[in-house]
What we know:
This protein has about 120 residues and is mostly helical. The chain contains six helices and two strands; from the N terminus they run ααβααααβ.
Amino acid sequence: MIHQIRKMIGCIVSVIRGFVGEDTLERAMDTKIKMRIPKAPPYFLFLDRPDFTPYNTVSVYGRLNPISYTEEEEKQMEQFKQERIILPLLKRDKEKGLFSAWLPTMYKSKYFTELK
């Protein structure tokens, strides 16, 4: 599904902000119902951490080469994320108002109306 993560975030933000009721989440996931769902802006979506659990539990050719990180590597990754991803995103949003400009569009649109 195209824009799946953006739509999931848009739907959850809509419920949390009180734009729609919690029952909207159930209807949005019902495969028999088609509806318009707001897409969150892509600027703030990033893969925070890959999950290697399935890979680590499967033996490949009889050998297991699990992927894991040391405590020091974890600290370095967190520092990199904060300095190179989070802070620049927040600065960009403060300058351009990308996320705050998106929220009012949910009022103006016909989101969460069922399509036939």
